[in-house]
Amino acid sequence: MLLLRRCQSLTRFGPLKSQRHRVTPAVASCAVRLWSSSSDDQRSHQHAHSSSWRHGLAGLLAGTGAVLAYVLHHHKAQQADTSQTTDKTSSLPIFSQAEVTKHRSLEDGVWVTYKGSVYDITEFVTMHPGGDKILLAAGGALEPFWALYAVHNQEHVLEILSEYKVGELNAEDKKKQQAIKSSDPYSSDPERHPVLRINNLKPFNAEPPPEILSDSYITPSAFFFKRNHLPVPQVDPASYQLHVEGLPGGVLTLSLEDLKTRFPKHTVTATLQCAGNRRSEMNTVKLVKGLNWGIAAISNATWSGAKLRDVLQAAGYGPEVAQWARHVQFEGLDKDVTGTTYGASIPLNKAVTEEGDVLLAYEMNGQELPADHGFPVRVVVPGIVGARNVKWLGKIIISAEESSSHWQQNDYKGFSPGTDWDTVDFKSAPAIQELPIQSAITTPADGAVVDRSDEEVTVKGYAWSGGGREVVRVDVSLDGGKTWQVAQLRNSDKGQAPEPMPPPGRAWAWKLWEVTTPLPPEAQELEIICKAVDNSYNMQPDTVAPIWNLRGVLSNAWHRVKVKIREDECEE
């Protein structure tokens, strides 16, 4: 959690002009350059400065790629702008841990330690809103914070931190620090299936091999993609409580047993997809910041639980609430070291209409929710981006405003290909809710080889569209888009009866598709392409470049794989 990480690099205000053994000379403030290219309007500058710091702080607490990307961009830019160098080899003062611990307030100074070195961040804390959260680390070691946010424990972050170094711990206290092993907040995370392809270990993010997706219409929970933002919380189902706030009846508190016994149980088959699914393809155009998801950050399951609509009505929701309320906010029980929880929100209308099918789910694929998927209760918002399907649900708030969470306000938003980290304004774009039409080829894999003697090739994949729009067609080409054929769609496993057609606007689950076709006689390589069409005739764009964006979200261009044809060996 390098709250400090951007002591220098988040806002680029330059090293501290501390009077406490400051070794590093002050570098000119670059606050204006960070969020505004103009220094003429000081008031505008200060407003941008304050606002951007709050956004940056939330991102640092969350350990998110978006803010980390912004930080690194500006740190590198400033390195290019200055030729100043500092002699780091000069003798530094020696402090005891007791001396460091005295510096835990603005009056006494704010000091922290890392691996036996002492850092002074006083001036930074005084300059910025949100500094009170940084004080959590004051007078102590950074190691426990970085245990939570492993993404920050990297060379470039350490380099930035080094600019704040004011001294060393004495030898005795260094030994004590080394003897104390930082507790790992991820140590109680559940075991995961080894077949999963890990994109990030802490917090855990992984996807299954793509071919597994097309083997089963319902994705087994062990293979369902995992997207965690923070450590998996340990929740006792017997003492679990869900709080519903913001309605005329006051706060409604429900136990897990209440959800199971007071409200009818509903089951919905729904596909969840991460906003960053297929981000890796955007990286081939231009590098983006975020987890390098392949095509399998999407899965399909049956979810069972109480309808959110029923719970809200029990809590006092009525027509008068609809006159002022616009959003339903969710807060999870997963939290960072400051107590900040994961949060998101959806439009009120989606939550309260019968057709919205939003569940407070306590079962997945007929079993209790696995820990990675939100045990004991999660929100399932069919047709909506995975980021709004909050896991380990602890609180529901009816509000006139969207969630103020970092993940609602400063992440999971799409931008023009021309927007970069110098010009991005997260307030200018709406939070992603419904996702666009999507399809991908799960088999054969890119680079696979098929034998000429097989005479034909079978291509499989998935297709899905957000907002309950039903996929009505998938087109497949073996020659790079010159000719096309229509794939066969299915909404159940082979040998099983098809599921009933969903009502219009409630097609929450994906379609699996397949086509078997003869190998072209003269071809030595196939460029296989798929593209899907939904019942609103939304279609996928043909290339990635026009939809590229700096966060690598909403990646839904035609999916392409290349396959070699191996000719038969001549018999002697």
From TrEMBL:
Protein name: Sulfite oxidase
Gene Ontology terms: biological process: nervous system development; sulfur compound metabolic process
Keyword Oxidoreductase: yes
Cofactor(s) listed: Mo-molybdopterin; heme b
Organismal lineage: Eukaryota, Metazoa, Chordata, Craniata, Vertebrata
Database matches in InterPro entries: Cyt_B5-like_heme/steroid-bd (IPR001199), Cyt_B5-like_heme/steroid_sf (IPR036400), Cyt_B5_heme-BS (IPR018506), Ig_E-set (IPR014756), MoCF_OxRdtse_dimer (IPR005066), Mopterin_OxRdtase_euk (IPR008335), OxRdtase_Mopterin-bd_dom (IPR000572), OxRdtase_Mopterin-bd_sf (IPR036374)
Subcellular location: Mitochondrion intermembrane space
Keywords: Heme, Iron, Metal-binding, Mitochondrion, Molybdenum, Oxidoreductase
Top-level taxon of the source organism: Eukaryota
CDD domains for this protein: eukary_SO_Moco
Gene3D superfamilies to which the protein is assigned, alphabetical: 2.60.40.650, Cytochrome b5-like heme/steroid binding domain (3.10.120.10), Oxidoreductase, molybdopterin-binding domain (3.90.420.10)
A Gene Ontology term for the protein's cellular component: mitochondrial intermembrane space
